[in-house]
Amino acid sequence: MVSSKDVATQAGVSQATVSRVLNHPDRVQEKTRRKVEAAIEALKYVPNAHARSLVQDTTKLITLLSGPLYNPFFVETTSAIVTYANERGYQVNVQFVQDDELAEAYATAIQTKMAGMILSCVFLEDAIFEQLTHMSIPFITYNRKHARNEYFVEIDNVQAGYLAAKHLQDLGHTRIAFIGGSQKVSTFRDRFIGVQQALGELPQELIIHDTASKAEVFKAHAKLKTLSAPPTAIVCGADSIALEVMDVAYKERIQIPEELSIIGIDNVERSRHGAIELTTVGSISERNLGLVAIQELIKMIESEKKPCIQITESVKVFRRSTTQPC
After folding, report:
1. What is the Cα–Cα distance from 138 to 273, expressed in whole angstroms?
2. How far apart are CA 77 and CA 289, in angstroms?
3. Phi and psi angles of residue 306, each rounded to the nearest 5 degrees, phi first
4. pLDDT tens, 250-292?
5. CA pair distance 60, 247, nearest whole angstrom
6. Which residue positions in the chain have pLDDT lower than 70?
7. Which domains does the chain have, with CATH numbers?
8. Does residue 107 contact residue 51 with C-beta atoms inside 8 Å?
9. Which residues belong to any copy of the HTH lacI-type domain (predicted)?
10. Please, are residues 208 and 224 in contact by the beta-carbon 8 Å criterion?
């Protein structure tokens, strides 16, 4: 049986370093982390005895690692996942985590006996992908995907960014800003790529990434407002960001869309509320990504084979009340 000591020897590091790579990969230098990951892959190492039991015993528990509940997207998808899983006889262990809490969440999750895992918070480069593969645990990601481009459900995020920006451009806006999240995740990276495809290279002053909280969105809006030539329109990398931008704008007596047009991406249910009417981009089918993902995961769990799931939903603009001609 391969042990962490064997991995350490193979990689030429200490067992403590192996442990850090498994539990806190963000705290290990990239060169060292890659050496340890290569040793893990070569030796087909499974982290601990309890984790090894996960691939040998059957269980009706599914682990869900979801983004935070202040984002309505995760409220809707979590509800759909739990409801469907329960209908199929599965229980769901839900953890709501921020990106900076992922390493600890992963370490806890893989020590729980489970039938499979569903994740909405994976990074493009993420060690958990390899760990779950080596442990033969069925898993799927939704909304985000890993750089290996396997086991995911998403909307066409590049096209979503493109359509959002093109919509504002077609309305005559030339000063268009982008407010999004971390470029370490596929969702925001791809949506920003789409925006650039539509508009070309944006001035750096009109690009703001890493807005993961209400406070950061407030700072982003304040920064744009103080420019000598403020934007007349904003592409928000998610509906959750757009809703926060709208809130800040209304509190500052900025008229939407007369003074500022705003478009989001995701088409969450709240964006359709009569008092909000957010213009956004979302799936043409309007299928809940969480529901699609849990359906595919349970198929994987109950099948002898493990098909490679690659689902990308086509998108369109849902024009409502927050955008108008410049």
Report:
1. 37
2. 7
3. -120, 85
4. 999 999 999 999 999 999 999 999 999 999 999 999 999 999 9
5. 42
6. 1, 46-58
7. 4-154+287-313 (3.40.50.2300), 157-284 (3.40.50.2300)
8. no
9. 2-56
10. yes
